[in-house]
Write a sequence for this structure.
């Protein structure tokens, strides 16, 4: 009877250790997945910030401006959507960068962009062109 009791205690301990190992592996995989999503979001945020920064730069420079900027390289395939509306005396702009994750940035300024109200989509752009005279013209390439 002592041998059966010892054997059952031994097996229960082994099952408990196996369950603990499985739960730790699950927690590690969940944290890795979360970290990977965060890294993807940060990468897309860098692209959105690059577009916003280029528009701010063109808007702040005096006179006529022609500006070309390369967008940051990413490891993921993404789509950029730029939505603009002009109400009152202000141009509002939303830049969405989408892949598995999605990042959206907004900007409000005075000068009209692409005539005011517009919607533009581009898959995996590598460059943007801005031209400023009376208003600002944006092109994603």
């Amino acid at each position: 009877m002592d041998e059966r009791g010892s054997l059952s205690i031994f097996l229960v301990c082994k099952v408990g250790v196996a369950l603990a190992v499985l739960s730790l592996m699950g927690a590690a995989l969940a944290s890795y997945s979360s970290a990977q999503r965060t890294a993807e979001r940060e990468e897309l945020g860098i692209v959105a910030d690059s577009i916003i920064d280029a528009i701010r730069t063109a808007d702040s420079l005096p006179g006529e401006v022609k500006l070309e900027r390369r967008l940051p390289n990413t490891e993921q395939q993404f789509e950029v959507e730029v939505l603009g509306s002009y109400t009152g005396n202000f141009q509002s702009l939303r830049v969405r960068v989408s892949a598995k994750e999605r990042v959206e940035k907004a900007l409000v300024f005075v000068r009209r962009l692409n005539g005011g109200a517009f919607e533009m989509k581009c898959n995996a752009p590598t460059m943007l062109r801005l031209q400023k005279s009376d208003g600002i013209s944006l092109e994603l390439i």
